[in-house]
């Protein structure tokens, strides 16, 4: 179980580091033109940048605290925070009738809930 948690946390960390970096460093207008990027039109550029920074912090928080053994309780906290972000993302995508993207967000949500559950519960010290 511990190995599965590490694999899923690492995968999710990579996803959110890339997604967060994209939101933080690519202009909002460019993001809006990308496939699946139309959602940024409903939010301010500042919101998109802050969201990107939070996703990067969450991605780091999924792996680094547990890997270093420094404040490992932050790993399930990061997973929980990113899960909340994925709920919001799924809601936005459903409202936009972009169901394939919403399904991907729900899949990420499930993986993040698995990490949060595993690190809060059965594999707290793993």
Automatic annotation (TrEMBL):
**Keyword Metal-binding listed:** no
**A GO term from the CC aspect:** membrane
Q: What is this protein called?
A: DoxX family protein
Q: Which UniProt keywords apply?
A: Membrane, Transmembrane, Transmembrane helix
Where is this gene product found? Membrane
Chief subcellular location equals membrane
**Topological type in the membrane:** Multi-pass membrane protein
Superkingdom per UniProt: Bacteria
Entry's Pfam families?
Answer: DoxX_2 (PF13564)
**Membrane-spanning parts:** 6-26, 47-67, 73-92, 99-120
Has the keyword Transmembrane helix been applied to this entry?
A: yes
**Which InterPro entries has this protein been placed in?**
DoxX (IPR032808)
């Amino acid at each position: 179980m511990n190995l599965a948690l590490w694999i899923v946390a690492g995968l999710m960390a990579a996803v959110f580091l890339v997604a967060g970096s994209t939101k933080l460093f690519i202009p909002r207008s460019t993001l809006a033109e990308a496939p699946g990027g139309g959602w940024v039109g409903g939010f301010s550029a500042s919101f998109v940048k802050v969201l990107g920074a939070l996703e990067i912090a969450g991605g780091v928080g999924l792996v680094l605290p547990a890997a270093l053994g420094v404040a490992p309780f932050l790993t399930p906290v990061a997973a929980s925070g990113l899960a909340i972000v994925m709920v919001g993302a799924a809601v936005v995508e459903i409202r936009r009738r972009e169901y394939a993207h919403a399904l991907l967000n729900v899949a990420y949500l499930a993986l993040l809930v698995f990490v949060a559950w595993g690190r809060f519960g059965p594999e707290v010290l793993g």
